[in-house]
Amino acid sequence: MQVQTVTGPIGLDQLGRTLMHEHLFIAFSGAEFDPTAVFDRPAFVAEAVKRLKQLREEHGVKSFLDPCPIELGRDAALMKEIAEKSEMQVICTTGFYFEEMGLPIYWRARTEQEIADLYISEITHGIGKTGVKAGAIKVATGKPITALDKKFLAAACIASKATGTPIITHTQDGHGAPEQQELFAAGGVEAHKCLIGHCCGNADPAYHRKVVDGGSYIGFDRIGLLRFQPDEVRADNLVKLVRSGHRAQIMMSQDRHCGWLGKFARQLSPQEQAHIDAQRAAGNWPPPYTYMFTDFFPMLKERGLTQHDIDSILLDNPRRYFAGEPLPLPNQA
């Protein structure tokens, strides 16, 4: 069994410590028309390489999943260049975003099978002429989940079943995870082949229990994004899941980026803009990928988690997910 990275396939035993939801570069559709949106590719590559080397050398991270949707500036050639220069194993995805913030008009008009055929082609033959193959399928839904969201999710199910490729999702504002699970089940995709993203945006432990009881992996993958949830709440809820025997289903990551074309896809408050300007002036913007290791893991240990617990989440769970292995029973991980 192998995992497809942007530089070629690797064995499961080569994955190592893995961050399961991070981004290198994001560009929302339309940003390319903004004359103030400047992208210095060589400078960006140098910065991204520096940040990934820091992850690898200081925190032992070997693999980095970037589930950038196709229409949010995904650049497979750029990912490959950064992976080669940083010696990081980068995994990219096929799949579009959700209706409110994505889904190109052309692809909205396609059938489920036509969309699935694109996904299958990017998995089996490669993305465009880059030769880079996708290693996972991205699914995104809004709040509420729309008919178009469901159509693209159904296409992902077709592609996953045809190729055996696992699915990673975006949920909006901490909602929609159980509904996604129901749709995956209806599409014939086994729950353990799905990582339901951004569940830590919901503060309710009952929501998290419903997700893990549904048999999927659960993404605590916006660690450090305090606009959605205080990290103390994330830490409390993550520890509750471990204590209830569901350590084997947790994925930890931060949903951070190294580069972003133009402005954000929403208007920032004056306070938010002032904070970003100050961080940029101090050389700390975008925020580094290392926060989870330097700031969040101590929170987990203060609440009783061990280094073994953390290592199991970063090592064992990504390997099992990509292997497509069934989950162990609670308390047997």
Structure description:
The chain is of the alpha/beta class and 333 residues long. It has one domain: TIM Barrel (Alpha-Beta Barrel), CATH 3.20.20. It has helices at residues 41-59, 76-86, 105-108, 112-124, 147-163, 177-186, 205-213, 231-243, 270-281, 291-302, 307-323; strands spanning 2-5, 8-11, 17-19, 25-26, 61-66, 89-94, 136-140, 167-170, 194-196, 217-220, 250-252, 259-260. Strands 3-5-6-7-8-9-10-11 form an 8-stranded parallel β-sheet. It has a two-stranded antiparallel ribbon with strand order 1-2. Strands 4-12 form a two-stranded parallel ribbon. Helix 1 (41-59) packs across helix 2 (76-86) and helix 4 (112-124) crosses helix 5 (147-163). The radius of gyration is 19 Å and the shape is globular.
Gyration radius over CA: 19 Å
Q: Number of helical segments?
A: 11
- Distance separating the two termini: 21 Å
Main β-sheet, in a few words? Answer: 8 strands, parallel
Query: What's the pLDDT, averaged over the residues?
Result: 96
Report the top-level CATH class: Alpha Beta
Look at the structure and name the CATH superfamily: Metal-dependent hydrolases
Provide the structure class. Answer: alpha/beta
Q: What is the share of helical residues?
A: 40-55%
Summarize the structure.
With about 325 residues, the protein is α/β, with parallel strands linked by helices.
